[in-house]
From TrEMBL, chains A, B:
<keyword id="KW-0812">Transmembrane</keyword>
<feature type="transmembrane region" description="Helical">
    <location>
        <begin position="413"/>
        <end position="435"/>
    </location>
</feature>
<dbReference type="InterPro" id="IPR011547">
    <property type="entry name" value="SLC26A/SulP_dom"/>
</dbReference>
<dbReference type="GO" id="GO:0008271">
    <property type="term" value="F:secondary active sulfate transmembrane transporter activity"/>
</dbReference>
<dbReference type="InterPro" id="IPR018045">
    <property type="entry name" value="S04_transporter_CS"/>
</dbReference>
<feature type="transmembrane region" description="Helical">
    <location>
        <begin position="123"/>
        <end position="141"/>
    </location>
</feature>
<keyword id="KW-1133">Transmembrane helix</keyword>
<dbReference type="GO" id="GO:0055085">
    <property type="term" value="P:transmembrane transport"/>
</dbReference>
<dbReference type="InterPro" id="IPR002645">
    <property type="entry name" value="STAS_dom"/>
</dbReference>
<feature type="transmembrane region" description="Helical">
    <location>
        <begin position="210"/>
        <end position="237"/>
    </location>
</feature>
<dbReference type="InterPro" id="IPR001902">
    <property type="entry name" value="SLC26A/SulP_fam"/>
</dbReference>
<feature type="transmembrane region" description="Helical">
    <location>
        <begin position="257"/>
        <end position="273"/>
    </location>
</feature>
<feature type="transmembrane region" description="Helical">
    <location>
        <begin position="148"/>
        <end position="165"/>
    </location>
</feature>
<feature type="transmembrane region" description="Helical">
    <location>
        <begin position="471"/>
        <end position="499"/>
    </location>
</feature>
<dbReference type="InterPro" id="IPR036513">
    <property type="entry name" value="STAS_dom_sf"/>
</dbReference>
<feature type="transmembrane region" description="Helical">
    <location>
        <begin position="378"/>
        <end position="401"/>
    </location>
</feature>
<dbReference type="Pfam" id="PF01740">
    <property type="entry name" value="STAS"/>
</dbReference>
């Protein structure tokens, strides 16, 4: 047999033997039986290196640098850390037009949303504007997504408000609350940047989409209900985040409901929801919903000013200070009883905002067929939050709704973020007095319209159709957030997701395989009606790695299959069972408990004069079976490259020695 | 094609189509391509029922009851809950001789060990004897192992002493401490019995053997070092369980070292270790080590009495009350500040003693080729502890060392436990005054000899050889116990084991497959030097279910494989890549994130004019792909039953349309 010139790698001779050809008593042509090979020898160091590189560098980030001159490497390195050098060099005036249009569009959305989300986090409204100015500039330099619109996001704002509000009241101790918010933002950024730097980005993968779906829907319901405070003009309202206290707050203070506020609030809510509906129906009309919030703010401000409605009990934002972000590094809370709270809040909001930012970045990248590097994005978002925390910003990330508008408005590069920041700059410097008469109710309507899209019942229905366990995880997150708390809802959902993995590993499938006539294919008898049992053989497919968590179960389950097969054979008076073949194709790993289980099983079956045969163990499993000297305990005919070869060889032996 | 009469189950027609025969342009004989089938339709309820029965009843405990008359069912039911009715009916005088010999042997071991382990748990010595009387009787009725010797066990005693001792001092508040010990025993039994009743036995599978190895070795080291207190005659000794305070206690109080105690203690320790060594070398001489502890107790008592050594500072057990177990149900601590502690201690000692008991039972059952039902054993051990807690016993289980002696001494049934209990009864009623002069040092020597066998460095070396990650988990448990605490060591070890599973799922292997010439077998190119790449194809084996935790990784990794393959092709100037085949054999499950990843991948590859083909998706995966309407988005040639058929069919298409 010719040696294959395409092989990936050389490996020491002797690890694999040549094909052996057996000529058996009755079968013609001779059976060609292929020996099962061990993977090439590797030292512990090589194995460790390979494993670590798969864990931390699965995307091989340095592949561009291979075989390049030092100067090219320098340029590539700069481009790697500052993507602006990558797209900036090709930037042309042709692109700037689209970027200006999209930048202005998202600015008109970002200004009212910024103010609203700051309110959601119990922070002064101006912090929301500050947070729409500095972070987008940082992201434009460091970020690798071309469509991400950066600024405050609803979920992270909500969670920050909820977590900090549990311990510190924003009305009684506003300065401490503000300090804690900046500190949480700092730790959130630090955590995000470290995840990226240490290439631990896969941690956010543990928030499955199903979990997030339920979590976000729950948060959206809570947030929307909380806005009833503004929409109904209620003054005394709970600080809690569960559905029961919020709803009882709404109905307990019925005497505070103000009909003027309700009428005005509902009108704007209906207006905003209608524009949202139009834009969803016709994506070309994206500007309708994009312009609506600013229009509502302007209209409502004019109305309040014209009718002097603020004296009739409609609450307004009030005076906002002109000027750019003041530095806030001196406001970071570095020691004291609340430091733990700030760190915890930072980490949780950090994970949540990162998940949203990266998911959004990836979505639009895949639409335009470019790559977003998760670990790099984490560093960009992290640095943006660290800098933000020192310049009076709270947690920011890429917002889904604004990024969608950005994309639809034709954004080409991160320049649209710069244009947005410039617009916010102009607002901060000159337009602040205009917000004095803006009513709070319009902010409530803007928040509801923004978060209502997070309740994606169609996706939940799809989960139900496709995967019941995913749906269950989703519902756990949803009801956990609604009835217990935002953090615990999240924790439950992550727990359910991990439990699902462990359950799959603890109780793996085992299936009986049969031969599809005329082929070498062995398939599940329950699925394939043409598949046939092979007399005297029981062929079992093990559909999972064999770990300590399932080794006992698998041992018992296999013995039960054998017992059931023997009962069936007795009933149908077929030829007796002689050989159990385990198809190990899907056993992608094994640990020491698993090896012990295989050994036990072999011994138990041998006592009942049944032969145990392993078919197609993968490389890693072979290596461990070899190292644990299990291979030696299997007899000559105990290991085959495929089920087909095992059946052919062993049944020819049966014929030879009846 | 004839319909197979051996099929497992009927399923609705239409789920699977007949084999299609394609006659392609150039290939002769015609290619026979088999369609991939969907598994038979199941309702949600059927799926749920199947899943739950696999989780909770994998061993199908009711299979004996099928097709039996009601009276037989009653007998079988009685035998199921009280195994004594099973073996009791066949019990003969021939067996009783062996049972008496083995029962007396383990009694001679159980009496000194009982006293010693009570000391380990900081309990009065007599509690150890009480615990060797009632529990073995209960187990003899309910237990299904024939060789388990029941009584106090070292690890559980140690953990109980360590956990309770952290909050309550056994010298200052002995009554409260005793109450808490009985309460912990009660909860331990309740927890064990509920695990069995709810068939949640698989929870103990999460303590892998590697973890337990490290944990037990660490505990053995700590326990042995603590015995230096008795062996050196030190009076002021730490209550802590970490290595550093224990060792500093030993050397800090050097002035308390008593040479008489040290000489006597070391002599007995050497004697016991020598007998242990002899019995290990020659298993037939098991009685040498079995008789040694009682011999040492008798010898040392005589020595102390003869030389009046107790007045020379050798501490003795002192006066023990004659009589049977007093009832202690009134001493259960049902409310108060320490209830949480008692429950926690109960659960942890419960898990540990259960793990030991079941592992020991299974070991000897497999040597004699009978089955031990895990869930039934849990109920037996649990009830034994509940009853024990009401009759002045602390946590008991099956002890490894005594069971081994029992087995070697020829025990045939649980009658040996009854004989042992009878011997303890005689001791309790008549022989208690004899222990008055027994020195504490001999108990220390007995404990060291008993636990030293738990330090199994050979097994640890085997772990190192076979599986480095298992070795790492083992070391984490070992050093965690030594340097932090018993509970945290255990928690770390369980954490490492679960992390190992998650790591395998998060970063699964992907391998490039090649064809082994002359066969339909496709194997890893790195392992099989005879395997050949198929031109224009990239065949990837995915070695894991596709879950939310790895869907992003797999997507990126597959794109990297494609990139690397394209680079390689360019370098070698081979024919261009046209088709990516994913071998899904080992993808035993998929969730909604996984499905999305497959869809994204298909779209991304399509943009690069590459075709994505799935080969051999298993039933569950097919079902989900179908339900999520992903199958429809794959074109006509997107799904095959095996890699071989995919390559054959698609390459014939390539030839037809070049």
């Amino acid at each position: 047999m010719g040696v294959n010139s395409n092989r990936v790698e050389d490996f020491p001779a002797g690890a694999c033997h040549e094909t052996t050809v057996k000529i058996t008593a009755e079968s013609l042509p001779p059976l060609e039986i292929h020996e099962v090979c061990l993977p090439p020898n590797k030292t512990t160091f090589q194995t460790l290196k390979h494993r670590l590189s798969e864990i931390f560098f699965p995307d091989d980030p340095l592949h561009r640098f291979k075989n390049q001159s030092p100067s090219v490497k320098l340029v590539l390195g700069l481009q790697y850390f500052f993507p602006i050098f990558q797209w900036g060099t090709n930037y042309s005036l042709r692109l700037i037009k689209s970027d200006i249009i999209s930048g202005l569009t998202i600015a008109s959305l970002a200004i009212p949303q910024g103010i609203s989300y700051a309110k959601l986090a119990n922070l002064p409204p101006i912090i929301g504007l500050y947070s729409s100015f500095v972070p987008p500039l940082i992201y434009a330099v460091l970020g690798s997504s071309r469509h991400l619109a950066v600024g405050p996001v609803s979920i992270a704002s909500l969670v920050m408000g909820s977590m900090l509000g549990e311990s510190v009241s924003h009305t009684e101790e506003p300065i401490l609350y503000l300090k804690l918010a900046f500190t949480a933002t700092f730790f959130s950024g630090l955590f995000q940047a470290s995840l990226g730097l240490l290439r631990l980005g896969f941690i956010i993968d543990f928030l499955s989409k199903a979990t997030l779906l339920g979590f976000m829907a729950g948060a959206a319901v809570i947030v929307s209900l909380q806005q009833l405070k503004g929409l109904f003009g209620i003054v005394h309202f709970t600080n809690k985040m569960q559905i029961i206290p919020v709803m009882s707050s709404v109905f307990y203070h019925r005497e505070e409901w103000s009909w003027q506020t309700i009428v005005m609030g509902l009108s704007f809510l209906i207006f905003l929801l209608t524009t949202r509906h139009i834009s969803i129906r016709k994506p070309k009309l994206f500007w309708v919903s994009a312009a609506a919030p600013l229009t509502s703010v302007i209209l409502s401000t004019i109305l309040v000013f014209a009718f002097k409605a603020h004296v009739h009990g409609i609450s307004t934002i009030g005076h906002l200070q002109k000027g750019l972000n003041p530095p806030s590094a001196n406001m970071l809370y570095v020691q004291g009883p609340y430091l733990g709270l700030a760190i915890k809040t930072g980490i949780i909001t950090g994970i949540l905002s990162l998940t949203e930012g990266i998911a959004v970045g990836r979505t639009f990248a895949s639409l335009r067929n470019y790559q977003v590097d998760g670990n790099k994005e984490m560093m960009a978002i992290g640095l943006m939050n660290i800098v933000g925390s020192c310049s009076s910003c709270f947690v920011t990330s890429g917002s889904f709704s604004r990024s969608a508008v950005n994309y639809n408005a034709g954004a080409q590069t991160a320049v649209s973020n710069i244009i947005m920041a410039a617009t916010v700059l102009v607002t901060l410097l000159f337009l602040m007095p205009l917000f004095t008469y803006t009513p709070s109710l319009v902010l409530g309507a803007i928040i509801i319209t923004a978060v209502i899209g997070l309740i994606d019942y169609r996706a939940a229905y799809r989960l139900w159709k496709v995967d019941r366990l995913d749906f269950f995880a989703c519902m756990c997150a949803f009801f956990g957030v609604l009835f217990i708390s935002v953090q615990i809802g999240l924790a439950i959902a992550v727990g359910v997701s991990i439990f699902k993995i462990l359950l799959h590993v603890t109780r793996p499938n085992t299936v009986v395989l049969g031969n599809i006539p005329g082929t070498e294919i062995y398939q599940n008898l329950r699925c394939y009606r043409e598949a046939l049992r092979v007399p005297s053989f029981l062929i079992l497919g093990i559909e999972s790695p064999i770990f300590f968590a399932n080794s006992t179960y698998l041992q018992e389950r296999i013995l039960r299959w054998v017992r059931e097969e023997e009962d069936r054979i007795q009933e149908n008076k077929e030829s007796t069972l002689k050989c159990i073949i385990l198809d190990m194709t899907a056993v992608t790993a094994i640990d020491t408990s698993g090896i012990e289980a295989i050994n036990e099983l072999r011994k138990t079956l041998k006592k009942r004069s049944l032969q145990l045969v392993l078919a197609n163990p993968v490389g890693d499993v072979m290596e461990k079976l070899h190292r644990s000297k299990t291979l030696q305990s299997f007899e000559l005919n105990g290991l085959y490259l495929s089920v087909g070869e095992a059946v052919a060889d062993i049944s020819s032996l049966f014929k030879a020695q009846p």
